[in-house]
């Protein structure tokens, strides 16, 4: 999905004309596009940190039990697993580094935070639709404008779409409960 498609959908939901097809934009129109782009980046980061994380795997060198996160190709949020020699190794986080109980080479799987998207970029995440991301974008946009009714409505729609993606195809287990009268 293209970032432009998300912004176009936002403009449509707001009742605005398609400003992205215009050759010349006024300062107000450019400011609106910039604000929507900033809100979309916030909504997408929210989605990948809370609902549908992005994962990366790469070979790392553990030196004296420490993996520096600065050396990773992506901005790490948290480690998922570290394997070395076909065995899983315990790993924990401390400050800007990850601690492991060995030294040597291993494969680290971790969740990461994507870079900020620009207007001409593509979001290659197939788990989220342009409609859902536009709802999250408008929720952020209206929240900053202090239009709380619209912000809440778009936020509920956004989170419902993300929750559906999060549990799609997996059974949800509910704890034993008690009926109350």
Walk me through what this model shows:
With 181 residues, this protein is an alpha+beta fold. 39% of the residues lie in helices and 24% in strands. The protein has four helices and seven strands, in the order H-H-E-E-E-E-E-E-E-H-H. It has helices at 3-14, 27-50, 130-144, 148-166; strands at 54-62, 66-68, 75-84, 87-89, 91-94, 97-100, 104-113. It has a four-stranded antiparallel beta sheet. Helix 1 crosses helix 3 (130-144) and helix 3 packs antiparallel against helix 4. The longest helix has 24 residues, at 27-50. The termini are far apart. The mean pLDDT is 89.
Number of strands: 7
Low-confidence stretches: none
- What is the overall silhouette? elongated
Radius of gyration: 21 Å
Helix content: 25-40%
H/E series: HHEEEEEEEHH
The total of helices stands at: 4
Concise summary:
The protein has helices at residues 3-14, 27-50, 130-144, 148-166, and strands at residues 54-62, 66-68, 75-84, 87-89, 91-94, 97-100, 104-113.
């Amino acid at each position: 999905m293209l970032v432009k498609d998300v912004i176009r959908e936002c403009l449509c939901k707001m009742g605005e004309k398609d400003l992205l097809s215009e050759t010349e934009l006024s300062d107000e129109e450019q400011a609106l596009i910039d604000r929507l782009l900033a809100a979309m980046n916030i909504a997408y980061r929210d989605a990948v940190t809370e609902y549908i994380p992005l994962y990366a795997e790469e070979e790392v060198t553990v030196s004296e039990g420490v993996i520096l996160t600065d050396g990773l190709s992506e901005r790490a949020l948290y480690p998922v697993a570290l394997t070395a020699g076909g065995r899983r190794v315990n790993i924990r986080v401390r400050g800007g580094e990850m601690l492991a109980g060995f030294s040597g080479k291993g494969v680290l799987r971790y969740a990461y935070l994507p870079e900020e998207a620009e207007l001409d970029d593509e979001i290659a995440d197939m788990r989220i639709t342009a409609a859902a991301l536009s709802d999250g974008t408008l929720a952020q946009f209206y929240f900053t404008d202090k239009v709380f009714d619209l912000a809440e409505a778009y936020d509920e729609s956004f989170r419902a779409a993300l929750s559906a993606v999060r549990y799609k195809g997996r059974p949800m287990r509910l704890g034993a409960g008690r009926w109350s009268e």
